[in-house]
Design a protein that fits this description.
By secondary structure, the protein is of the alpha/beta class. The protein is built from 13 helices and ten strands. β5, α4 (100-114) and β6 form a beta-alpha-beta unit.
């Protein structure tokens, strides 16, 4: 499997990342361990989590996903060497924002939960305009100097702020954001493609987009409002995609999938993987069977005419 660099960093990964938001939420510890084993044994490495995962679940406080990953790593057997750990800071209430002291405290907490000495990719989960960018980048620089972080990335940044951060890093000799984590999928396109995508390509920033399957809509599981009952957790988000354009996208996914003996989800991920700006889209699964379906997308090569057909069906978003 061809590995792709994460920006200009020393890290390279297979072209699909696992979304660890399900750990401690829709995947309990045993299921999470099985998923992590299957993911890494198949040759994939990038696992994306955050300190806030999964604080939204009743009874949870946050940090559950990192703790589960840490307990999985503690089993040994070369697990730490097989995985590239990406986590984030800024959105969790006890560690909100990007003030230097908060970043330092948050990474110590994450390292303790993960049971590791270094985070491979440490990301600003969201922008914090109340803190000067040079202060935030300086805090990340100290973490790299301390050997606690290998590379840094940004999530949910605007193009203007990302460009400003990259310019500051270059001018001041600070570590730069090597990755960008935006919302991006076959339905949600304009927000990334208009300004962020050209910036990422011009500045060699790796892209590891989230909501790659549009909250499950692009799997084809939800084709009418009656189908929303299949998942109470996803119904609200999926309903937004049930319009004429969304159904047109599903029809195009069906047609391309039929030609490959594939599934709509595999085609939707393959479309992302084929995008020159994308390093590794993030996708989640709650069972090994479901995960194996998604991983097959990395071996699915779409023809130019199929990509063009998907582009046409999804135009306007």
């Amino acid at each position: 499997m061809n590995l792709r660099p994460l920006g200009r960093s020393s890290l390279s990964v297979a072209p699909l990342a696992f979304g660890g938001n399900v750990f401690g939420w829709s995947a309990d510890e045993a299921a999470s361990f099985a998923l992590l084993d299957a993911f890494t044994e198949a040759g994939f490495a990038l696992v994306d989590t955050a300190d806030v995962y999964s604080a939204w679940v009743p009874g949870n406080q946050g940090g559950e996903s990192e703790r589960i990953i840490g307990r999985w790593l503690a089993q040994g057997g070369g697990r730490r060497e097989r995985v590239v750990i990406a986590t984030k800071v800024a959105k969790w209430a006890p560690r909100r924002g990007l003030a230097p002291a908060n970043i330092q405290a948050a990474v110590e907490d994450s390292l303790r939960r993960l049971g590791t000495e270094v985070v491979d990719l440490y990301q600003a989960h969201e922008d914090d305009a109340s803190v000067p960018l040079e202060d935030t980048l300086g805090a990340f620089a100290r973490l790299i100097e301390q050997g606690k972080v290998r590379a840094i990335g940004a999530s949910n940044y605007s193009a203007a702020r990302l460009a400003q951060a990259l310019d500051l890093s270059e001018r001041l000799g600070l570590p730069r954001y090597e990755t960008l984590q935006p919302q991006y999928n076959l339905y949600d396109r304009a927000g990334f493609e208009a300004e962020l995508e050209p910036l990422a390509r011009a500045r060699d920033v790796g892209v590891i987009g989230y909501y790659s399957l549009a909250s499950g809509f692009l799997t084809g599981k939800y084709r009418s409002r009656a189908d929303l009952g299949k998942s109470r957790a996803r119904a609200g988000a999926v309903e937004n995609y049930l319009d004429a354009r969304g159904l047109r996208i599903l029809a195009s996914l069906d047609e391309v999938a039929a030609g490959h003996g594939a599934t709509p989800a595999q085609v939707a991920l393959a479309w992302l993987i084929a995008r020159p700006s994308v390093t590794a889209p993030i996708a989640s699964a709650t069972s090994v069977v479901q995960l194996q379906e998604l991983l097959a997308a990395a071996r699915l090569s779409l023809r130019a005419d199929e990509i063009a057909a998907l582009d046409a069906a999804s135009a306007g978003g």
